[in-house]
């Protein structure tokens, strides 16, 4: 393989892309979160109105997406650290990526009820 193409089109490239995308999404969330939290100092009533809009099923789905992004970013970050600092990391990076994906799926399944339970009760009744 020519130099510089080790990851092109393979699992490593897609985990690299997903790591960057989740990082940008998390940054965007934090930016919006700081802005809406700062609103409490400007107008507590406006802050209450904004928070009320967050209690909808659509926002619950967005929160689930946020949990997905944070979990993947964190788990993949640990994998990147292992690849960089473990002497055999590069040799086992594909297996570690699939381990990250498996752990991420299990954790996301476990997050369904805590994150989406309120939205389900609101949509379908308790």
Automatic annotation (TrEMBL):
Transmembrane segments: 21-42, 54-75, 96-116
Cellular compartment(s): Membrane
Cofactor(s) needed: heme
Pfam family, one: Sdh_cyt
Biological process (GO), any one: tricarboxylic acid cycle
Gene Ontology MF, one: metal ion binding
Family: Belongs to the cytochrome b560 family.
Protein name: Succinate dehydrogenase, cytochrome b556 subunit
Gene: sdhC
């Amino acid at each position: 393989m020519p130099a510089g193409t080790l990851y092109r089109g393979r699992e490593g490239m897609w985990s690299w892309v997903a790591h960057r995308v989740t990082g940008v999404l998390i940054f965007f969330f934090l930016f919006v979160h700081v802005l809406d939290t700062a609103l409490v100092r400007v107008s507590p009533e406006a802050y209450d109105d904004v928070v009320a809009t967050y209690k909808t099923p659509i926002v619950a789905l967005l929160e689930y997406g946020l949990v997905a992004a944070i979990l993947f970013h964190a788990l993949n970050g640990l994998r990147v650290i292992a690849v960089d600092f473990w002497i055999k990391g590069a040799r086992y990076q594909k297996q570690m990526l699939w381990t990250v994906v498996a752990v991420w799926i299990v954790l996301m399944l476990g997050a369904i009820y805590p994150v989406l339970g309120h939205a389900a009760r609101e949509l379908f009744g308790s």
